[in-house]
């Protein structure tokens, strides 16, 4: 089970950037951003719907039925992808290259929300560590509120998390299509600032009469 899920995760990690590339490639000229926004909306919707439907299938038919459903949908996706026309444009039908070499493409570094690769590689691990630490602290605080109902609390946390992914992506789509990535970064920073203020108020010691 562990090996199979590892392979599935690796395949998903390889497929996701390919989907982004394919979406921009098959999009009508001038509508690449709109098409990519639609793909991102579908990606955000799938965890919300997938988790809910999988839980329902597991309750009705057992957890094995969930994997059978995943196999069926994966085969349908594979058949659908095989029907897509392959790129004939020599500008897009190039040999695969590595992400490291792709950093040499003019204009790619500013597009990655940094001006230098060194700064990008420094900030990303710090950001990831802070995000992971905050997530652990949040889950720890939630489970400590009522240990007897820890499962229900975690269920609510999962629902809010996936709903926020869907709502955030859907709200960001029109902004991305009209103004690009920069306003999204600013809105995300404001959202994080609001979360920080709420977290500080939550953890502040309460005054006693």
Structural class: mainly alpha
Number of extended strands: 0
Radius of gyration: 21 Å
**Arithmetic mean of pLDDT:** 75
Number of separate structural domains: 1
Order of helices and strands: HHHHHHHH
Residue windows where pLDDT falls under 50 for at least 5 positions: none
- Biggest β-sheet, characterized? none
What shape does the CA trace take?
globular
Distance between the termini: 56 Å
Strand content: under 5%
* Proportion in helices: over 70%
Total helical elements = 8
In short:
The protein has 209 residues and is mostly helical.
Write the layout of secondary structure elements.
Elements: H1 2-26, H2 32-61, H3 63-82, H4 99-102, H5 108-111, H6 117-145, H7 150-179, H8 182-203
Helix pairs in contact: 1-2, 2-3, 2-7, 6-7
């Amino acid at each position: 089970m562990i090996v199979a899920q590892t392979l599935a995760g690796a395949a998903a990690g390889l497929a996701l950037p390919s989907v982004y590339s394919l979406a921009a490639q098959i999009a009508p000229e001038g509508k690449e951003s709109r098409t990519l926004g639609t793909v991102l909306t579908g990606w955000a919707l799938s965890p919300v719907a997938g988790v809910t439907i999988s839980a329902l299938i597991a309750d009705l038919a057992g957890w094995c039925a969930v994997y059978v459903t995943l196999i069926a949908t994966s085969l349908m996706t594979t058949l659908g992808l095989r029907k897509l026309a392959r790129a004939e444009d020599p500008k897009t039908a190039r040999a695969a290259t590595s992400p490291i070499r792709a950093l040499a493409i003019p204009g790619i570094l500013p597009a990655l929300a940094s001006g230098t690769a060194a700064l990008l590689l420094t900030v990303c691990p710090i950001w990831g560590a802070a995000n992971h630490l905050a997530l652990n602290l949040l889950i720890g605080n939630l489970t400590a509120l009522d240990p007897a109902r820890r499962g229900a609390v975690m269920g609510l946390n999962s629902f809010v998390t996936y709903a926020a992914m869907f709502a955030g992506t859907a709200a960001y789509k029109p902004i991305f299509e009209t103004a690009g990535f920069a306003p999204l970064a600013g809105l995300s920073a404001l959202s994080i600032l609001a979360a920080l203020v709420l977290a500080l108020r939550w953890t502040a010691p309460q005054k006693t009469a």
